[in-house]
């Protein structure tokens, strides 16, 4: 019987990428026991971000959040644990 792995989405936001903190942030997650199984540098479209944050659409900060996340590249990662 195969074991079921829990997956976690992790994103390094545009300011972390711009400040050159990607390596340090990944290191800290790995030290906490997260095992990265996928990673991709993306510039997310506004449509993707609106879909991702759909549960926040009625909040006053929603538009600013979408614009901020669209302002630069994001490192999107998936980690797995058993």
List keywords for this structure.
single chain, 82 residues, alpha+beta, Alpha-Beta Plaits, 4 helices, nucleoside-diphosphate kinase
Summarize the model shown:
The chain is of the alpha+beta class and 82 residues long. It has helices spanning 14-18, 22-31, 46-52, 62-69, and strands spanning 6-12, 35-42, 74-81.
Average of the residue pLDDT scores: 93
User: What is the CATH homologous superfamily assignment?
Assistant: Nucleoside diphosphate kinase-like domain
CATH topology: Alpha-Beta Plaits
How many structural domains? 1
Rg over CA atoms: 14 Å
Distance between the amino and carboxyl termini: 13 Å
Can you offer a commentary on this structure?
This protein is an alpha+beta fold. It has a single domain, classed as Alpha-Beta Plaits (2-Layer Sandwich), CATH 3.30.70. It has 4 helices and 3 strands. Strands 1-3-2 form a 3-stranded antiparallel β-sheet. The longest helix is centred in the first third of the chain and has 10 residues. It is globular and about 35 Å long. This is nucleoside-diphosphate kinase. One of its GO terms (molecular function) is nucleoside diphosphate kinase activity. Its cofactor is Mg(2+).
Topology readout:
Layout: E1 6-12, H1 14-18, H2 22-31, E2 35-42, H3 46-52, H4 62-69, E3 74-81
Antiparallel strand pairs: 1-3, 2-3
